[in-house]
Amino acid sequence: MAGAVLLGLLLTAAALAAPAHAAGVPQPDGYRMSDYRSPTPDGVAGGETADTPAVQALLAQGRTVPVFVQRLERSTLPGGPWLQSKAYRQIPGSVWLPNVGMGAPDPATLAWFESQLERLTGGDRNRDLLFYCLSDCWLSWNAAKRAVLFGYARVHWYPTGIDGWMEAGLPTEEAHPPSPPPAVSPAP
Fold first, then answer.
1. Which of 55, 78, 82, 158 has a CA that sits 20 to 30 A from residue 166's CA?
2. 41 pairs with which residues across the strands?
3. What are the φ and ψ backbone dihedral angles of 29, each rounded to 5 degrees?
4. Helix (H) or strand (E) run with residue 74 in it
5. What is the residue extent of each domain of the chain?
6. Span 2-174 CATH architecture
């Protein structure tokens, strides 16, 4: 009897610890616009979902550009810098492109995202791109979907993100975003 109770407790704990993206959350037609830290779908249309071993294999090939998309506040001053109040960790070799996974980024951020992908891939739309954020984070899902719509053919989405990477005990490095996109002028 005690063995059956213990087995039941272990199965319940395993179910609770399972990633939320496995819960069958439907993919929206557009982008997720709010509540970015919530259960995510199983995949992204036009892209490939990757678990930690798949990400390791992609990175070992040396052709994958890992893109960290954690949100970051920005100064409201014209041309203002990112406001980074704490250190963030990323997969080694990643490029941090803040806010490109927002549901409705401003036109300057969209143009900046597209130009950054162009630069990072050398214009090769068949270059592997890996998008990630934190676990249960729609920002990476939105960014991956956006890259697919930009015409990139080899888009990978890592839904457990840096959290899954660190839980696996894999190395990280401190994240540093590049200069932000130009500020959008307020409407008159």
1. 82
2. 25
3. -70, -40
4. strand 73-74
5. 2-174
6. 3-Layer(aba) Sandwich (3.40)
Q: How many CB atoms lie within 10 A of CB 186?
A: 7
Task: Tell me which DSSP letter residue 6 carries.
Answer: H
- Yes or no: say if 117 and 47 are a contact pair by the CB < 8 Å rule: no
pLDDT tens string 121-177: 999 999 999 999 999 999 999 999 999 999 999 999 999 999 999 999 999 999 999
User: Which amino acid makes up residue 123?
Assistant: G
The pTM (predicted TM-score) of the whole model is: 0.85
Q: Which DSSP helix (H) or strand (E) runs through 65?
A: strand 64-68
| DSSP 8-state code for residue 85 | -
Give the tokens for residue 104.
């409705």
Q: How far apart are CA 103 and CA 53, in angstroms?
A: 29
Contacts of 104 (CB under 8 A, 6+ apart): 31, 33
